[in-house]
Amino acid sequence: MAHELPYIAAINEAIQLEMARDDSVLYFGQNLATTENDEFVRAFGHDRVRVTPIAETAEIGMAVGAALAGLRPVVELYMAEFMLVAMNQVVNEAPRFRYMSGGRVKVPLVLKAGYGFTAGWAGQHTGSIYGMFLGIPGLKVALPATAADAKGLMATAIRDDNPVCFLHHYLLTLEPGEVPDGEYLVPFGQAQIRRAGGDVTIVATGWMVGKALAAAASLAAEGIEAEVIDPRTLAPLDTTTILTSVQKTGHVVLVDQAPRHAAASALIAGEIAEHGFSTLKAPIRQVTGLDVTVPYSEPMEAFVLPDDTKIAAAVRQVLGTAPVPA
């Protein structure tokens, strides 16, 4: 059975269910547990739900220590950019201990943060900075695109014995979706084919999945059947599903909201180029944000970021069906 929830409520449901299931799960952040009416405080008390200082190095440092001590903290960071203040803990401490201890120490820690806000937020809180956390051995990165995956990936993240960056797109916050009842887990490293097709493979992450599906719908009216793949996690990355699709279609468009030279799409392109080059019938095309700070102006913001029109245009170019300029 399933029920409908907004994306953010699905994440909260996963945290609540995991806290009810496992007494070692903690939840804290700078704006949590500030009143007795907080739903998490009412359910689990101040020992497990805590407000922290306005200091990311402190709250993430506390979380690393709690994880090393056998607890499973979830840190509410609100904005991914706040992790930049504590990068030593995020990339140089938490992910290393398990390897350096020969597996004797576990670091089950979830860093929950929003990313990619647009709609006039301008420079500092509009980043899609997940690329900074890729290639860090021991650190996992999840980017759910639907309410169901938001619930399932959060539950999996909490149960994982490694630190996880759980990044949710701001503009998906209130998007409703069908969510399975009760306990629900989505495995890491298992992509989802959101739409089947045989002409071109579109790989999109987070908020861009919806844009890719919209582009695929418009292309279908032209007789072009696009297969849309949502990786769901970038670390680990399900290259098998992507390469299988590329082998079928021979054409690839990669969509990523991050600036081109910081995009996860570049990593995916590299995997395809190395392991699926012989199946390609045309060069890989990337549709990404431009290499500029996201501007405040709405028309300029739209110019900088990918959308369904730009995705559809890239597909036509890859397939060689784009109109030739006069």
Explain this structure.
The protein is of the alpha/beta class and 326 residues long. The chain folds into two domains: 2-180, Rossmann fold (3-Layer(aba) Sandwich), CATH 3.40.50.970; 192-319, Rossmann fold, CATH 3.40.50.920. The chain is 35% helix and 22% strand. It has eleven helices and 14 strands. The chain has helices spanning 7-21, 39-44, 56-68, 87-93, 97-100, 147-159, 208-220, 239-249, 264-275, 298-304, 308-319; strands at 2-6, 25-29, 49-51, 72-79, 110-115, 140-142, 164-169, 176-180, 192-195, 200-204, 226-230, 233-235, 252-259, 285-289. Strands 3-2-4-5-7-6-12 form a seven-stranded mixed β-sheet, sandwiched between helices. It has a five-stranded mixed β-sheet with strand order 9-11-10-13-14, sandwiched between helices. The protein has a two-stranded antiparallel sheet with strand order 1-8. The mean pLDDT is 93.
